[in-house]
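Quick one: structure for this chain?
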Amino acid sequence: MELQRVAIVGVGLLGGSIGLALKSRGLGAAVMGFGHRPSTLQRALEMGAIDQACQSLPKAVADADLVILCTPVGLFESLLGQMASDLKPGAVVTDVGSTKRSVVRQAHKLLPRKVQFVGSHPMAGSEKRGIDYARADLFAGATCLLTPVAKTHAPSLAAVERFWTALGMRTCRLSPAEHDRKLAAISHLPHAVAAALVHLQQDAALELAGKGFLDSTRIAGGDAALWRDIFLDNRDQLGAAVARMRAELAALARLLRTQDAAALTQWLEKAAQRREALMQKKLRDMSVE
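Got it. Here's what it folds into:
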């Protein structure tokens, strides 16, 4: 698939960063940006993230070779339905959503057979939101998860992989169900825990908070509406992850009640060792880039 025209549906942090990355890497495609806020579209134009601003979804996606959904996941079903009849034959639709089972089902239900869908989830972002925080290097060195199913068009899957690779990402394939299960544990649960840590503090304690607390709760500053949609869409897997977290905290509580210093040391050391191994792997991955 030769990309001559790319449509970005939702020009915020991720959508804007995709446009900037396309331009900075000289990929040459004309970038259409769709959004409801004229001020956001104007800012995206000023930053060079898009070539043309569209408040009409049909106009934005018409003649696009690749359409990328970059809105909160709760809007995907409506947007897919609205754009379905305006996509050209052979167009490929992908997304940046943090949940995958629902969007894959919706896409295969709503999009015509002339159009191909490939689920994507670039593992890059920030607790910040909006076009002003978009960066051309946001995706460099990060991983993009792709979620093909049995009916996924193989050439379109390969084309979407090439697209993310061209933006500097590594790609990994897994099923929508596996994606949602793993992301509940490594992404959705940490966000929920960060929010819970903030909620349980008394104001007097918060006044004493230092860098450790701020580091641990940084992601709690994310877009509430976006994370609400993620939590609800993946509620079964997030609920299961919360249950595992409660079991882990219950085990810690038992160690404290029994004053088992040796076991407590082992519990802490195991966590430190696993985190260090993860950090070393990340450093090795970065050195390969």
